[in-house]
Amino acid sequence: MRCYNCGFEAEGKICPNCGAPLVTYRDIITLSAAYYNDGLDRAKSRDLSGAVRALQMCLKLDKNNIEARNLLGLIFYETGETVHSITQWVISKNLQPEENRVDRYLDELRNSPDLLDNMNRAIKKYNFALRCARKGNYDVARIQLKKVLQLNPRLLKARQLLSLLYIRRQDYVRARYELTQCMRIDACSDKTIRYQKEIDRVISLKNAAREEEEQPRKRQQAVAYQSGNDTIIQPAKGFSTGGALSLISVAIGIAVGVAATVLLVVPARERRAQMLGNDRVIAISEEADAKSVRLSEYEYRIQELEQNTQQMQSRLDLYEGEDNATNAYDALLEATSAYLNGETDVEALAGYMEKISVDYTAMDEDSAYTRLYRAVVEKVGPDVSKYYFDIASAAMRDNDVTRAAQMYELAARYDRENAEALYNYAEATRLLGDTEKAKLIYDQVVNDFPGTRRANDARNRIVELNN
Fold this sequence. Notes:
Blueprint: H1 23-44, H2 48-61, H3 66-78, H4 82-95, H5 102-110, H6 113-135, H7 138-151, H8 156-168, H9 172-185, H10 190-218, E1 222-227, E2 230-235, H11 243-264, H12 268-319, H13 324-340, H14 346-355, H15 359-363, H16 368-397, H17 401-414, H18 419-431, H19 435-448, H20 453-466
Antiparallel strand pairs: 1-2
Helix pairs in contact: 1-2, 1-3, 2-3, 3-4, 4-5, 6-7, 7-8, 7-12, 8-9, 8-10, 9-10, 13-14, 13-16, 14-16, 16-17, 17-18, 18-19, 19-20
């Protein structure tokens, strides 16, 4: 066994190379191997659910167990979970690049692009069917699941969902068929067994109810009387063997014979027309279901297009107007140029920064505009923040609370570490009468500067405003 610390081949209780204790590690490896053997036995007996649980526990104890990881990938592949199987095989390949049997599995997938494409389409259709089922479109979901099973017949969860839809439809024959196919894939799936038990329970209840309905019809009260030394028992509503009754029976038999003859000589053309009509109804029903599926797909696509349109419109609004985008970019370039040229006039830098539109930074977090803006703010932000803070303090002394609030906001924007500016911005907002906004800013002070004096002051202000 290799030492977990240095990788040295060790046999005793302590690694002779680094001195690491190996007793507990050896027990963990042994337990991991036991779980692997249990998973292998379960997989051979088609208990794939139990095998997955055992192999996951094995890998939790020893993530480097290559054989367990390869087997787990095979089980996922067997149940139609191609993504999970490829994940396990890729991890196995990274852990053991050489002499790994997973190379053959991955090569087969690479050489079968149509197979992967079908698996991908099957998963997308399954997700669409699941959404339809959750929304109550059970017919559409059922048709989609049939298409899924055409692309990937071994996708266990698709068959289980289809059987559940059949159960809801009370089509227990088809539900049993799908569950039988599930049992051939995974003989001990908890979900499959639960569905089968539910079908058996419903059918047994129906049979019991039917027997209770038919029992009074079969129950006949018997009449007993004595004839000499014999006791004769006959039904209370027994038929008399009189001649009139015989004639009635003969008449009834003749009538039944005539009716049977009429039914037997019904023209085959009428029966054929009825069969064709039934086939036509079925075809129309399937065509309507297919149109419902396409309609649902179109509705989903329309929702996506509407979302994309809204996003594009919001971006377009930013670019429309009096060359807003150009002005914003120019202002940012002017501020950058001033800083690179060693501009020391903070008022000039503040003037450049005021022209920059912050909306463009929110439009695209990873754009070059946003990265450059953040770099400039990081360099000149503290100085600009102090400049605005001084202006705001002067405005407060002059009782110009509106301008003070605007300047404190800019001071807090350009220096995120300026707790005093953020707190004063909240105070000015409170004085202006906007208590809800003030509470939000106070809460930001508490979250951004925990344990500070201003955080305690902000917390007290929130309590006062709430009371």
